[in-house]
């Protein structure tokens, strides 16, 4: 019998990290027999078509079918779940996945006793949740960004010479733009993906390059394929990921926010060229580490194993004590769903202020 999983996502309107993560999750769950649905608050047809390639059915929250029974809800962005429950969501188990420790919308759902398992990207976020929200440590599992198995199967054959580099970023800092020019002056081809040139980063795309400059999920992709990856973006960064610095940089999700190290264009270009051969020599060790830490099938199967062992929790229900929470979530969803683009910043500010409330 086919199982159903629902993934919730506030912004399903472009090729950004949350959309990519949802697509990868959906593809995996489809491969193990689930019918996969994603409910988004802000959606568009381009993202709907993108999800189809990953066997994910995207639906706007205003068109959600409450007749479907879900075996599992994988909930991002806390206002969505209480809204769905108020309107009749049918489900068996709920995972609350908090992708970011910075964004207000990524706070844990304010009904901890009704959540089966909480996921965070880093140990630091886990400890923050324990301290700030009194969540039991055993209820939180650290699930770092993962790389789908296909990235491990599509290993890169390294060139002897560094000749092609990709920058993957939605916010390329000025020093990296200047480093790009310096690298080109030395005969190295450099192309940027992201921002005004959005591309689905697949193994086929990355395999064209000898090295990649990026942060976040792209780092895991490169490590899985054995491509040297230079960790740098608008927060700065420490440079090439090696077996020696991998754990340190992972603590901040390869964001550059461990040391906020800013480098000059000259330093960036020199390090990329001069340290390249040394990093290539460590490729096999990096792949082995990545397989243990970031392989999607391994990590999600671990999550499902933990979920199967959790104590049965009471389903979330609206009552007089939590009605303010439900009213608040309803207000947020109605404010955003179907809004005009020009009003987006107003609603974002509203969300930021209201999420400071405690229930």
What does this structure look like?
The protein is α/β, with parallel strands linked by helices and 359 residues long. 40% of the residues lie in helices and 20% in strands. It has 15 helices and 12 strands. It has helices spanning 17-31, 45-52, 80-86, 123-133, 149-153, 174-185, 203-206, 217-225, 246-250, 265-274, 276-280, 283-294, 296-309, 323-336, 344-354; strands spanning 3-12, 34-43, 56-60, 69-75, 90-98, 117-120, 140-142, 164-168, 189-193, 211-214, 229-233, 236-240. A 7-stranded parallel beta sheet has the order 3-2-1-4-5-6-7, with helices on both faces. Strands 9-8-10-11-12 form a 5-stranded mixed beta sheet, with helices on both faces. Helix 3 (80-86) crosses helix 14, helix 8 (217-225) packs across helix 12 (283-294) and helix 14 (323-336) runs antiparallel to helix 15 (344-354). The longest helix has 15 residues, at 17-31.
Short descriptors:
single chain; 359 residues; alpha/beta; seven-stranded parallel β-sheet; five-stranded mixed β-sheet; 15 helices; 12 strands; 40% helix; 20% strand; elongated
Cα radius of gyration in angstroms: 21 Å
> Which structural class fits the helix and strand makeup?
alpha/beta
Give, in spatial order, the strands making up the sheet with the most strands: 3-2-1-4-5-6-7
The total of helices stands at 15
Rough outline: elongated
Mean pLDDT: 92
Report on the biggest sheet: 7 strands, parallel
The total strand number stands at 12
Instruction: Please report which band the strand proportion falls in: under 5%, 5-15%, 15-25%, 25-35%, 35-45% or over 45%.
Output: 15-25%
How much helical structure, as a percent, in the residues? 25-40%
Distance between the termini: 39 Å
Listing every helix as H and every strand as E from the N terminus to the C terminus, the arrangement reads EHEHEEHEEHEHEHEHEHEEHHHHHHH
